[in-house]
Fold this protein.
Amino acid sequence: MKAEITRNSQIAKNEAALEQIEARLASTKSIYKNHQRAKQYGTTSQKTMNPVIADMYHVIVKLVKQLYSSLPDKDERIVIEINNEVDPTDSHGLFTLMTPSFFFYLECSITNQYRIEYLYHHCEFEREINALINKFAVRSYSTEVVKNPDYQTFFRNCLACQPDRFITHL
């Protein structure tokens, strides 16, 4: 089944949710970030591996975006990309990448460990992405998760409430 997500008039912006997100992002309230604590208080192993895990995440994101940019249908090339590090209210998130058929998320746990979560939803690049995850030995630091059994609705809701600056067509 091909993911059918569009960014046209069928998906109206949820203005109330958008305002809440913008207010949250503009917050000056300070929150303790797990990745900052990990840099200061993590074990020697964590201080060594966390930057490596982050680098592997970004290499895979770059390659995933290249794969998606080759798709012929513009609606399948929609990407939501969020730098959670700059979200003043997100203590654990670092980066998020969402496409109509793939979710990829880097976080730092309360125990100072970086980890990656990912999800496929009828993703035509699942084999290629799994190969990248295996190639970069990310499997040890990642978990395939089910964020939402109805990923299409989840993705549509994200499109409806995320600021346009986080949404691009490849």
About this structure: The chain has five helices and six strands. The mean pLDDT is 86. Residues 15-169 form one domain. The chain has one domain: 15-169.
